[in-house]
From TrEMBL:
SUPFAM superfamilies: RuBisCo LSMT C-terminal, substrate-binding domain, SET domain. It is found in: Cytoplasm. PANTHER family: ACTIN-HISTIDINE N-METHYLTRANSFERASE (PTHR13271:SF47), UNCHARACTERIZED PUTATIVE METHYLTRANSFERASE (PTHR13271). The gene is setd3. Residues 94-314 form the SET domain. This is protein-histidine N-methyltransferase. The keyword Cytoplasm applies. GO terms for molecular function: actin binding; protein-L-histidine N-tele-methyltransferase activity; protein-lysine N-methyltransferase activity. GO terms for biological process: methylation. Belongs to the class V-like SAM-binding methyltransferase superfamily. SETD3 actin-histidine methyltransferase family. It is an enzyme of class 2 (transferase). Keywords: Actin-binding, Cytoplasm, Methyltransferase, S-adenosyl-L-methionine, Transferase.
Length: 589
């Protein structure tokens, strides 16, 4: 959250000028928009398309050199003003100070002992930059007339940030001056640094992030230059790709959802001072107090004087941290690798398998995860694989009869195999699939470990290789686990071991465990391939001071109001590919 800037500061407080005609720039931007708005690349052509888009972006960046707004002085110079501004407007500023922690960047240091769960930081609403404040700003007229901007709160916040940065009299300038001039998200990687991610499970998200950001920039550049409602925007004279990349990364690494003033909905916000906290494993300790109308944070643990104060960003993988926050977290207890699986509609038993999965609340095609912990697969993935490998008579047992519904609940439990043959098949399949994923990497784990020992690696290259290696470790662990499970169940089959007895009281064993699956009753054929089954979040509630927040991942104890997809135009649906995964809603937590 508090990364140091590696950019050379331009000694100016206003945009410089360069000899680029508006017509020339509009031609380039239109070409970029057309390239990014065409149908997605065919399989295997993603890297080629990325190079083409990047080439166009670099042409634009070259012509825009020197046009971006940058502040005088070092970032450190602005922190005292941030603290005095925060104090003057009702924030808590006692007990901590902004400090440079070297490799971790800037963070909060305790200036006294702080006890676990002690309320040490609060930020009132008036200090927050939100979508609501954007609507009331100079951006408001354009927001009111552009449906795409209305559909993309994250972009609204990014453009709001840029408009305020360009305004010498902005209320938020003390905060904006302390933001990094550059980030470590892949949007800032050099081409050879991105190339280090080829073969990883994360690379598609990285390439999509770049494509979407370039498309958004091209669209909003044209909009700002041509729409009558943008005539008074400070961006009209200077809106560079580097500006937008910076604003996107500022929002992507810092934004959170907070309740609106009436507490009935949520809005995106940037939260000054609090967003200086760095990440550590733990629990969410930040909430929103509706009565006092402020963001509040309690201590994650006991802190001694001069120790760094951390918060927990949420259960995110290292791929998510790298892509959306710009760092790799070595001790990540929630790291995972995505694996996409589905049942083909052409399969003879598709309808039966789809129905069993539907009753278990699992789609017939989905992205699952392999985890870094001792049990590498979730209850949902285990259940999917069991159904995927079921024979017709086994499917009937889970669809028909008095115990069928109760048996569905046990699909995600290691304690209740469908059959020894089914277990052997599913672990063999998982072994094969994981082995194929490992073969896609161009280097081995040993080679990556050796490369990381080199001191001359750039920070971005090191991060990319760390992510690549972490993925391999998870896959290798899953491969070893799958092999061990397969051998175990082959032995059970060969020895004629009886299956564990199933009876209805067995369900009691699954209460309050991750292995229990929800039961959803559907008519046969009701679930379409790829269709997600929606659930209410059981812990979601709307109470005073009950809004739990997580930087970047938008987790609150409140489900955002759904937007009717039919109200979006086609271009809105295309444009609304977010500033990436960090703009997910609470339901995706």
């Amino acid at each position: 959250m508090g990364k140091k800037s590696r950019v050379k500061i331009q000694k100016s407080g206003s945009a410089a000028t360069t000899s680029v005609s508006s017509k020339e720039m509009m031609i380039l931007v239109s070409e970029l928009l057309q390239k990014c708005s065409s149908g997605g690349p065919t399989a295997g052509k993603e890297w080629e398309e990325y190079l083409q888009i990047r080439g166009l972006v670099e042409k634009i960046r070259k012509k825009q050199r020197g046009m971006s707004v940058e502040f005088e002085g070092r970032r450190d110079d602005h922190f005292p003003h941030l603290m005095s501004w925060a104090r003057d407007h009702g924030a808590s500023c006692e007990g901590f100070a902004v400090t440079n922690f070297g490799a971790e960047g800037y963070g909060l240091r305790a200036t006294r002992d702080i006890k676990a769960e002690e309320l040490f930081l609060w930020i009132p609403r008036k200090m927050l930059m939100t979508v609501e404040s954007a609507k009331k700003s100079v951006l408001g007229p354009l927001y009111n007339q552009d449906r795409i901007l209305q559909a993309m709160d994250n972009v609204t916040l990014a453009l709001h940030l840029l408009c305020e940065r360009a305004n010498p009299a902005s209320f938020w300038l003390p905060y904006i001056r302390t933001l990094p001039q550059e980030y470590d998200t892949p949007l800032f990687y050099e081409q050879d640094e991105v190339q280090l991610l080829q073969g990883t499970q994360a690379v598609q998200d990285v390439l999509s992030q770049y494509r979407n950001t370039a498309r958004q920039y091209a669209y909003f550049y044209k909009l700002i230059q041509t729409h009558p409602a943008s005539s008074k925007l400070p961006l009209k004279d200077s809106f560079t790709f580097d500006d937008y990349r910076w604003a996107v990364s500022s929002v992507m690494t810092r934004q959170n959802q907070i309740p609106t003033e009436d507490g009935r909905q949520v809005t995106l916000a940037l939260i000054p001072l609090w967003d200086m906290c760095n990440h550590r494993n733990g629990l969410i300790t930040t909430g929103y107090n509706l009565e006092d109308d402020r963001c509040e944070c309690v201590a994650l643990q006991d802190y001694k004087k001069n120790e760094q104060i951390y918060i927990f960003y949420g259960t995110r993988s290292n791929a998510e941290f790298v892509i959306h926050n710009g760092f790799f977290y070595q001790e990540n207890a929630h790291d995972q690798v995505k694996i996409k699986l589905g049942i083909s509609k052409s399969e003879r038993l598709y309808a039966m398998k789809a129905e069993v999965l539907a009753r278990a609340g699992i789609p017939v095609s989905s992205i699952f995860a392999l985890y870094c912990n001792e049990q590498p697969i979730s209850a949902q993935l285990l259940a999917f694989l069991r159904v995927f490998c079921m024979k017709e008579e086994e499917l009937r047992d889970y669809l028909l009869g008095g115990h069928a519904i109760n048996k569905i609940v046990t699909l995600g439990s290691m304690e209740f195999p469908v059959s020894w043959d089914n277990e052997i098949k599913l672990w063999t399949f998982l072994e094969t699939r994981v082995a194929l994923l490992l073969k896609a990497y161009k280097t081995t784990s040993e080679e990556d470990s050796s490369t990381l020992e080199k001191s001359e690696l750039s920070p971005h290259s090191r991060m990319a290789i760390q992510l690549r290696l972490a993925e391999k470790w998870i896959l290798e662990k899953a491969l070893a686990s799958g092999r061990a499970k397969r051998v175990h169940f082959q032995k059970q089959l060969e020895e004629g071991a009886p299956l564990p007895d199933y009876h209805e009281s067995s369900i009691a064993l699954l209460e309050n465990t991750d292995a229990k699956l929800p039961i959803i009753l559907h008519k046969l054929g009701e679930i379409q391939e790829g269709q997600e089954i929606q659930f209410e979040e059981t812990g979601a509630r709307v109470e005073n001071a009950a809004f739990e927040m997580d930087p970047g991942a938008n987790r609150l104890a409140l489900k955002p109001e759904p937007r009717d997809p039919s109200e979006e135009t086609n271009i809105e649906a295309e444009m609304n590919l977010e500033l990436e995964n960090s703009f997910c809603c609470f339901m995706a937590a």
